Prior knowledge:
The chain is mostly helical. It is 67% helix and 0% strand.
Amino acid sequence: MFCFHWLFQDIFNSVIAALFLLVVCLFAIIVKSNKGTLAGGVLGLILLVLCIVDTVLLWKKISLARPRGRNAPAR
């Protein structure tokens, strides 16, 4: 994967996790065989929102213009 910048692997991981959670939670909410399945789907949607927030915060934190390493100035 030459075109994939490895600094974005956390963002990629969060996006894949969010898509997986979306599919599983919607399936759990649609099926709702009992109250536990419905509650699990709703809690999964809350986790989905947190995963999206994580993706946005990572996107804001990663900057390709900033220096990295031990010699980088403290913020």
